[in-house]
UniProtKB/TrEMBL annotation:
Keywords: ATP-binding, Nucleotide-binding
Gene: sufC
Species: Sphingomonas glaciei
Keyword check for Cytoplasm: no
Residue ranges annotated for the ABC transporter domain, each copy included: 2-245
Any Pfam family the entry gives: ABC_tran
UniProt-listed Gene3D superfamilies: P-loop containing nucleotide triphosphate hydrolases
Family: Belongs to the ABC transporter superfamily. Ycf16 family.
Protein name: Fe-S cluster assembly ATPase SufC
Amino acid sequence: MLRIEDLHATVAEKPILNGLTLSVPAGEVHAIMGPNGAGKSTLAYVLGGRPGYEVTGGSVTLDGTDLLAQEPHERAAAGLFLGFQYPVEIPGVSSMQFIRESVNAQRRARGEAELSGAEFIRLAKAEAGELGMDVDMLKRPVNVGFSGGEKKRAEMVQMGIMRPKFAVLDETDSGLDIDALRIVGAGINRIMRAPDKGVLLITHYQRLLDYVQPDRVHVLTAGQITRSGGPELAHELERGGYAEVA
């Protein structure tokens, strides 16, 4: 599904990713853990196509299609979803409006019929309910005045409506209390656990992996994958830190 080969990338001409190679097959959830400054968020932004993150070598394909040759909106239409560590606020634009425009833009790009207003509202209510979120919150401007947990739940509602093929989730556990962590973890499993989907879950801590059991765990240090293993690797990191395991 997602295949990254010898990926090199710079930010402000500073090398951050230094030959990163990683494969995530369809039907699997892979977790990436690593110290601050290792390149975890840079990897997420490179996959999403954020401006300012320059790829200087290597390749990335999603289901055999060259991801790096596509613009960010084309990557989204192809089924890539990027969850942010710090979801941005967009004053003046309601979450309902933002998500509906986003999902219909993707449907148009794929030659699919757009969701009507009634269809979208039914879907938004169902997804918000699954995540324990009052759908009226989606009438507010995107993330404005939301707590950390509310921002992450709103992002999960968006993912649930869009139903992407592959999700890159950058520290989705950031700012979540225990209850929100459980709800968001269940949301990831419900939306993305399928034979034709995949997830790259970027996190600092084991706690999210108690709710979203990964198939593989990878250690990212200095812009490279330095070790990979099963879910037990995350517990080793919790006990001994990165210096002991990488």
